[in-house]
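Q: Convert this sequence to structure tokens.
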Amino acid sequence: MGKLKVFNELWREYDLWYEKNPIKTLNELKLVKSMVSKKPCLEVGVGTGFFASNVSCGFGVDPSIGMLRKARERGVDVVQGVGEFLPFRESCFNTVLIVVTVCFMKDPLKGLVEAHRVLRMGGEVIACIVPKDSSWGKLYEEEKRRGHPFYKYATFYTIKEITFMMRKAGFEVKELKGVLGFKPDEEPFEEEPSSNILGKGFICIKGVKIVPNH
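A:
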């Protein structure tokens, strides 16, 4: 089963993750909310619209029709497409939100270049990742090796790799914050977003568009 088919057919299972992991979800949502401030906002890889609908990010793009139907139910204005070829004109958003999606992109640098294109000057890209070298990243890498239906299509990156790609795409990296200070085998607890990202399992990196489109 190919990547797109998996996300089309297993979108309910994907969406149930939020219900099954309420504390992790709450922590991640608090972090994303703390990073998104400018509208209009586009979420690339909007999926079922969970984050977009909860942080008032009004627009979403995703290749999976199954996911998009759920996102539309949640009130997100959606369009089918992929991050590397965004179906929007230049300079029409103030925020581009990318939650975990870079790990599913064929070419994440091209995806960030596209985010740069559709952002206005001073606009912000917010890329949230599970760092490859964190305890959570190592867990997901192991699940990938075991053939997890979603993670087997993922390529995980370190914070350093993402910040390098952001700068290459024309962004100035302005802020990093994280949550999930507990390890996968520890009892989860509620936490507030922190600029102390050491060892955290979910990190959001904010870049600002400081140069015109190439």
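The helical segments are 3-9, 11-20, 22-35, 50-54, 65-73, 108-118, 135-145, 159-168.
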